[in-house]
Structure formats: structure tokens, C-alpha cells
Amino acid sequence: MKKKDYIILSILLVVFTLLFKHNNLVRDSVIDSSKIWFYNIVTSLLPIYIITDLLINYGIINLFKNNKLFLTFISLLLGSPSNAKYIKEFYLDNYISLEEANNLLIFSYSPSPLFILNISPSIKYGLFILLYIYFTNFILFLFTKKKNNTFKTIGFKKMSFSKCIESSINKSFKILILILGVIIIYNIIISLLDIMFVDKMFFIKTILELTNGLNITTKLGSHFLIYSILISTFGGLSIHTQIKSILEDSNISYYCFLKGRLLSLMPLIPIIIFY
């Protein structure tokens, strides 16, 4: 085995041991994660996914100039990982090219607007966070736009109402189950970090999972805004894992998404250094 494999194996064995040692903590983490998933994600995203698929099926995309513009709009409205879900579906159905799919991943990221507004101490702070993300997405769009690109709208094959709902439910639950698994894994890791290091892993815990990170930053007082923008712009490793997993069986590159997140963080670096 390679040296990297030995390191990963060692870490996994430590985690495996901790799972048995702190089995009650792990059980509580799984239960809490499942509640968060059901009450905050399934109840909001499943109806939205079904309605969005029906709107696409019945021609709402004709109101937009091209498929890429529609995907940008729906990605920013629904948040991530919904952007990866629809970009992948459009690509696999040949409604956008691979180049367009990769390009969209760079600037189509956004946390759910309702989530950011609900978790922020005030609407003013929430709007500021969202405006920063939208502004950096717009700048990335301008820098990645190619003059010779003509993004045409390709007609969709319309399905019957019942067939569209059936297809939407099947595709949606595949994504939702994936999200559940990722949330459980990261919440278990955060819980184990709390046991082993108490409050000494602040930075790592904030970048692991967005919800957890923003809950931590709400306790930072005047430093809340800058750290919240940083965490929200990056998205958390949980979101990155979800995006990478969704794109796994396609040619679309996760690294385009990562590139967009890292470029969006660049204006924050001098602010953080001198803040």
C-alpha cells in the first residue's frame, strides 16, 4: 500500500474504535442528523424538486433566453447541492454540453437563501452574506464567459403528469438519501471532535458542515459577519462531498465547483488577515 493509504487506514481505525467507545454519542448524532434531514431538508426540498420538475416538463424554460440562464436562476434560488442535481440532469439529457456544465459549476453555488436568512442574527446580516455570494458568482461568470459561446435552448421531451411525478420522486430521493448519509457522517465526526478536543477544534468544525459552522459563528459577536461570509462562501466540506458524490457517475468535474469556491474566497483573505 501507498503511504497515503496507510494514513487513511490509520485514521479510519481510530474512528472505528471511537464508534464503539462512544456508541451512545454516535447514536444520538445519527438521530439528530435524521431529524435535521427530515424536518429541514425533506420537507422543503422534496416538494420544491417535484414542482420544479413539473415546471420544466411543462415549458417554464421557454421564459428564459437559454438553458444555461435557467440553470443559473434555479441553482441560486434552490441552493446547493440542487445546482449539481439539475446541472447533471441537463447534461445527461443532452440539454447542455459538458463545457457548459463545468462552467456553470464555477458560479452557480449558493446556500439556500431561506436557510441563511433564518440562521443569521438578523435579516440585514443574512442579506449581506447572500449579496456577497451572488456578487462573487457574477464576477466569476464575467471572467469565465467565452465570446464564442452561444447557449441555445434545446426543446424538452414532455412526459405525462404522472410519469413526470414518478420520475421526479425517484431522482429526488436518490439525492436526499445521499444528503442524509453525508450529514450523518459529518455530524458524527463533529461530535467525536467535541469529545476529544472540547473547544480546541473551532476552525475545523466550522468548515466541516455549514449549519454547524454558522451556529458556532453566531457566538463570535462582532466577528460573526466576516466568518459567516467565509464559511457560507466556501460551503462546508459536507456540501463539497454532496456535490462530488452527485457528479460521480458523470464526466462533469467537481474541481470546477472547488475552483469557483476558492476564487470567491480570495477577496476575503486580506480582510481576515487585518481584521
Rg from C-alpha positions? 20 Å
Beta percentage is under 5%
Structural domain tally? 1
By DSSP, the count of extended strands is 0
Q: Please write the string of helix (H) and strand (E) elements.
A: HHHHHHHHHHHHHH
Question: Uncertain spans, ≥5 residues at pLDDT below 50?
Answer: none
Distance between the termini: 44 Å
Task: Please state the overall shape, judged from the principal axes of the Cα atoms.
Answer: globular
- The percent range for helix content is over 70%
Helices and strands: which structural class? mainly alpha
Please give the count of helices: 14
Largest beta-sheet characterization: none
Q: Determine the mean pLDDT.
A: 83
Keywords:
0% strand; 14 helices; single chain; 76% helix; mainly alpha; 275 residues
SSE layout and pairing:
Layout: H1 3-21, H2 23-57, H3 67-78, H4 82-92, H5 98-107, H6 113-119, H7 123-144, H8 161-197, H9 202-208, H10 210-217, H11 224-234, H12 236-247, H13 254-265, H14 268-274
Short characterization:
The protein is mainly alpha-helical and 275 residues long. It is built from 14 helices and no strands.
How would you characterize the overall build of this protein?
The chain is mostly helical and 275 residues long. It has one domain. It has helices spanning 3-21, 23-57, 67-78, 82-92, 98-107, 113-119, 123-144, 161-197, 202-208, 210-217, 224-234, 236-247, 254-265, 268-274.
